Amino acid sequence: xxxxxxxxxxxxxxxxxxxxxxxxxxxxxxxxxxxxxxxxxxxxxxxxxxxxxxxxxxxxxxxxxxxxxxxxxxxxxxxxxxxxxxxxxxxxxxxxxxxxxxxxxxxxxxxxxxxxxxxxxxxxxxxxxxxxxxxxxxxxxxxxxxxxxxxxxxxxxxxxxxxxxxxxxxxxxxxxxxxxxxxxxxxxxxxxxxxxxxxxxxxxxxxxxxxxxxxxxxxxxxxxxxxxxxxxxxxxxxxxxxxxxxxxxxxxxxxxxxxxxxxxxxxxxxxxxxxxxxxxxxxxxxxxxxxxxxxxxxxxxxxxxxxxxxxxxxxxxxxxxxxxxxxxxxxxxxxxxxxxxxxxxxxxxxxxxxxxxxxxxxxxxxxxxxxxxxxxxxxxxxxxxxxxxxxxxxxxxxxxxxxxxxxxxxxxxxxxxxxxxxxxxxxxxxxxxxx
Length: 435
Description:
Layout: H1 3-13, H2 17-20, H3 30-38, E1 48-52, H4 57-70, E2 75-78, E3 90-92, E4 95-96, H5 99-116, H6 120-134, E5 139-143, E6 160-163, H7 171-174, H8 178-185, E7 195-197, H9 202-214, E8 229-231, H10 236-245, H11 256-273, H12 281-289, H13 291-295, E9 302-305, E10 309-312, H14 318-330, E11 336-340, H15 348-354, E12 361-365, H16 376-386, E13 393-396, H17 400-409, E14 416-420, H18 423-434
Parallel strand pairs: 1-5, 1-6, 2-5, 6-7, 7-8, 10-14, 11-12, 11-14, 12-13
Antiparallel strand pairs: 2-3, 3-4, 9-10
């Protein structure tokens, strides 16, 4: 079986969420546990950091992995979705799994996959865990898919659990309130396993405290000796230490401040409360400042080209795009062309009200390459209904490639072009510019 045949099989027999949406979602751990048993229960052999949250999971995972690599460890990294190639989801020390490994896994286990009919994500989880164990990684950094409690990755018992933040996304699966969503994410908190919470909210704080008490990892107060849960934006000595030593990172985007803080506290907890007591401040500083080179992270306020400046970002819901919108307003360029597209299960109208408008902003709505995409025309019509008469240029071009060509042709060297709203759109544009 070739790699292309393996990918076609995975997509055709169990289409992934990023292509078909809700029909790909299979909540529960039964399929994953069957898959794990079939491949030798690799989840029981992995030392891992397990990361959930609405936004920032990927950046936090890459930051953590970069520091562990800087410390000389062999580090597995499992994230989703991918931007260009499926192999990006599974990495060891920044190097994606080979196409030959993907093809071999599918060929070897195809009969069992046909029998169990796991989801695409369940299959990729089994592939990643199996690969990490066979390749003898020292530690793996694992990002959840949609939720936490019923997520395929939650078969792990990690060294550390991390929840970055809670926002309104995937409400059809996780609940339509912040409290309900927090309960699902809190499902990765486990007895005896320390946990770091990134950003907090009045509606979610008690959810995490309740779950921590159920798991016996919360003492009488947040700063007592028995405390095994840390709130990265509030907790006492960790915050003070972070403010003294916060390292510089090569990750761009103002929103990364939250992820840097969460990852930094997570690494302090790993150093102080797990066998990874050899982690030094110098490793953290080096990992944070070289994260893209070490782990291959892309698409986070990434500069793709100069003159005109071309930037992309994978923020794709209102919780994440509020920070992107603020940073777009701070760009000093005289004209900014924004190539924008979203999928149909996001809070599009809320996002439309967040995005900057005015005479220097020129919107080019386009259609990401996925069945879940909202059409360029629909997006443009919604923009006009929200910002009627506010002087912002708005056109619709279905093809992302043609949208990029139009933006570049109409931009002077001193202007800027931004691409965002969807991981799939960012992937389309990166692929176009690099081919």
